[in-house]
Write a structure and sequence with these properties.
With 157 residues, this protein is of the alpha+beta class. The protein contains 3 helices and 8 strands; from the N terminus they run E-H-H-E-E-E-E-E-E-E-H. 18% of the residues are buried.
């Protein structure tokens, strides 16, 4: 199952890249439908680093969904394209049922201080994928709306 987004955000591409690496922005874009809590000693860092990060996810901050490993890889491609890839996996709860997780986000210039943001999620939940897809699709649309809303504030930190 795939969910694809292609948006033009009202911010500079370097501000968007900084935002993608900020756990605070990650939580803002996902809320209020999901709440994410770090399971790492000391909690969330100021900026995501490459590698694994364990988190607990709950729906509306109340209903536990499970624990997940976010496994990040960051690259820069020619033409000023920055890519953040999460190839993590669920560990427990509903998230533990996910058998494949590939989340790739890329930012590049869309001209005149705007950012082209591309987001691709590839997920497999085995036989339940057909039922899970609509929920992920709706959640990704919510994230897209939140990203558009938050983007103008990213250069004002």
């Amino acid at each position: 199952m795939r969910v694809l987004l292609k948006l033009v955000l009202d911010c500079d591409p370097l501000d968007a890249w900084q935002a993608l690496r900020d756990p605070k922005v990650f939580r803002q874009a996902s809320g209020p439908f999901t709440t994410v809590r770090s399971l790492e000693p000391g909690g969330f860092a100021q900026t995501w680093a490459p590698g694994e990060h364990r988190v607990a996810v709950s729906a509306l901050g109340i209903v536990p969904i499970g624990t997940q490993v976010i496994d990040l890889e960051m690259t820069e491609r020619s033409g000023g394209i920055h890519v953040l890839r999460d190839s993590g996996h669920g560990e427990s709860g509903l998230l533990g049922m996910v058998t494949k997780w590939e989340h790739t986000m890329a930012v590049s210039s869309a001209g005149r201080g705007k950012t082209l943001y591309r987001d691709r999620l590839v997920i497999d939940v085995g036989p339940l994928t057909v039922f899970a897809w609509p929920m992920f699709w709706l959640f990704w649309q919510w994230r897209a709306a939140r990203m558009r809303q938050l983007a103008p504030t990213w250069g004002n930190k």
